[in-house]
Amino acid sequence: MASSRWNRIRNVVWPRMGFRRYGTYLRKRVLRLSASPHAVGAGVASGAAVSMFPLIGLHFILGFVLAFFTRGNMIAAAIGTAWGNPFTFPFFFAASYNIGHWILGGEPIDAASLDATGDKLSEGLFSGGLTAIWPAFKTMFVGAVPLAIIVYAVFYVLVRVLVTRFRMLRQARMAARRAERSGDMGS
């Protein structure tokens, strides 16, 4: 019982097949989707963009909503949310906090403010209720908006180009095979 629970937890953090094979699997899965290049690109971009927000647990839903409004593929949106994972979230959230802090015109962060934040957290993250974490959450949310826009644009263009190129190469391979087969039959 404990072994299976440990395996499930480990599989959430570290894929059983390894990261390289998992990345290859996701790439092939995206390239082989039957939707249009726009739909695949918009879907993956939607999933990746919502991963910038500090709303862990809602990324799939938000990715689906954004994909719906941009006419993206829902499966591609689910795959795009893999961009946000336990290894990348600390970087995304630190970047969104710093950008949000800059946008909101906050004071430069110094050691005294970090110590005060550490003192609040040592009392318990939720001991002060939502009011204790709201300033940081709001700052991260504001900073995540420009990050999400940039990530959406980069992923959309990249995935759309890759899907279009993949399909053209696949069509050429299939045409070559058909020509080869028809040449063999004519002999």
Automatic annotation (TrEMBL):
Pfam families: DUF2062 (PF09835)
Protein name: DUF2062 domain-containing protein
Superkingdom of this protein's organism: Bacteria
Residue ranges of every copy of the DUF2062 domain listed in the record: 22-170
Statement: the UniProt record of this protein carries the keyword Glycoprotein: no
Segments traversing the membrane: 56-80, 87-104, 140-163
Upper classification of the organism: Bacteria, Pseudomonadati, Pseudomonadota, Alphaproteobacteria, Hyphomicrobiales
InterPro entries per record: DUF2062
Coiled-coil residues: none
Annotated keywords: Membrane, Transmembrane, Transmembrane helix
